[in-house]
Amino acid sequence: MPGSCDYWMVSAAAEKLGSQASTLGIRYIKDGTLRLQFNREVAYYAKSIVNDVSQGKKSPEQGLQDLKNEQSSLLSQSFEIAQKAWEQSPGHFKLQQGPESATAQPVRCAYSQVPR
């Protein structure tokens, strides 16, 4: 086993990746079975990195980099999902691009629907 401190750093990073995946799963995956599968796959991936480090197949630095890359990928995908959801939501501004116009669709406010 590599230096014990290095191993625990990789283990801690793997645990944080699992926690982040769990949070993202709760936020974006409504189907419980799919959320469980997503969390399991991320956990298996993180565990495989930790195992590779403990068996000397990867250096602790490589393991940490792999976990960081996976975290970045999850955050990027999360951002894309949030952005798409925002773009599809009613009430946000949609700016038309081009030199001749910079118009926005009006925002409907909830109180504008209240009968007077």
Question: Can you describe what's shown?
Answer:
The protein is mainly alpha-helical and about 120 residues long. The protein is built from three helices and no strands. The longest helix has 29 residues. The termini are far apart. The relative contact order is 0.12.
- Low-confidence segments: 101-116
Care to count the β-strands?
0
**Terminal Cα span:** 74 Å
**Which term fits the overall shape?**
elongated
Helix content: 55-70%
Structural class: mainly alpha
What kind of sheet is the major sheet?
A: none
- Tell me, rounded to a whole number, the average pLDDT: 80
Fill in the keyword field for this structure.
116 residues; mainly alpha; elongated
Topology:
Layout: H1 4-28, H2 32-54, H3 60-88
Helix pairs in contact: 1-2, 1-3, 2-3
In short:
With 116 residues, the chain is mainly alpha-helical. 66% of the residues lie in helices and 0% in strands.
